[in-house]
Amino acid sequence: MSGIFFGGVPGRIVTAWTVGQLQMVLSAEIFDEYRRVGADLAARYPERAIALAPLLALVAVHATVVLAPPLSESVSADAADNMFLAAAVASATPLIVSGDVHLLDVSGWRGIADLTPRNVVDRYLRAT
After folding, report:
1. What is the per-residue pLDDT across 27-43, written as a single tens digit (0 to 9) for each?
2. DSSP 64-84
3. Of 3, 22, 99, 122, which has the fewest beta carbons less than 10 angstroms from its beta carbon?
4. Nearest alpha carbon to residue 87 among 23, 40, 17
5. Domain spans, the chain
6. At a CB cut-off of 8 Å and minimum separation 6, what does 35 contact?
7. pLDDT by residue (tens digit) across 92-108?
8. How far is CA 65 from the centre of its chain?
């Protein structure tokens, strides 16, 4: 959501996804979280909210949606973050892009790396 509202490095991640350089995998729970956070940000920054609905529509159509059962154990110190790990496990996705400190703390769990948007741009998108 920060890429939609504030651009910058997270915006480069969104652009890379929209042009097919990255794949987005999510669960219904994650999509609901994106809608909730997007609505909160739209209320706080209405002048930037115009891109929210079109991008959520693109996500709904073009992201890979997986059925991600809850983890049998809480991994992240913030239990709400476990849904991202569950989706990565369910889809065998090796990478989560997030600046969330709790997810960054568990990077490497079950071989799933969590990288900040800056790390992803530096490692994978530098040439773009």
Report:
1. 999 999 999 999 999 99
2. EE---PPPSS--SSSGGGHHH
3. 122
4. 23
5. 2-124
6. 56
7. 999 999 999 999 999 99
8. 12
Alpha-carbon distances of 1 from 69, 96, 111, rounded to whole Å: 24, 14, 25
- Residue 50's Cβ-count burial label (10 Å; 0-12, 13-18, 19+) is exposed
Gap between the Cα atoms of 13 and 2, Å rounded: 10
DSSP 8-state secondary structure symbol assigned to residue 116:
-
Please count the residues of the chain: 128
Nearest to 63 by CA among 125, 104, 14, 11: 14
Residue with tokens 């693109």: 58
CA distance 96 to 120: 10
